[in-house]
Amino acid sequence: MELPFHPESVTEEVLQNDFVSIINCQSDSCILIKWKRQIDFEERKEIFLWAYQFCKDNEVKNWLIDDEEIYIITSEERNWVANEWTEIVADSGIRKIAVYVPEYNYNALANQTDFTQTAQNNYQRHGTTEHEVFTDYQTAMHWIRS
Questions:
Q1: Looking at residues 1-6, what average pLDDT do you find?
Q2: Given this model, what pLDDT does residue 120 score?
């Protein structure tokens, strides 16, 4: 897997299972959550809560979520992320959450527009976390580093 971090960055895989790999990059204070396949709501919730605790414990400030393998986000997932999750993450110290969706996956990208806007508004209402969707790693990492 090609990582979006600077080549000289020290990275460490902090979690791996059959559906996700999480890489920590200390120099960018960022974790990469790379889904390996389509996930369900319980898997998303489990990983988000695990990553939330990891970031609190290790003072990680940024997330890059690779949604390349995600084609469906259920209404249950959207509701949880836009509402409960945005409240949970408010006290975490997480500043930015970037989501990568490849441009060729237009359906997933188009379906995220309203969901993304709702989540952005709720993140700001509950705290200071920013949330954006990107179609390439380079732009996402530039935003995270800015």
A1: 80
A2: 67
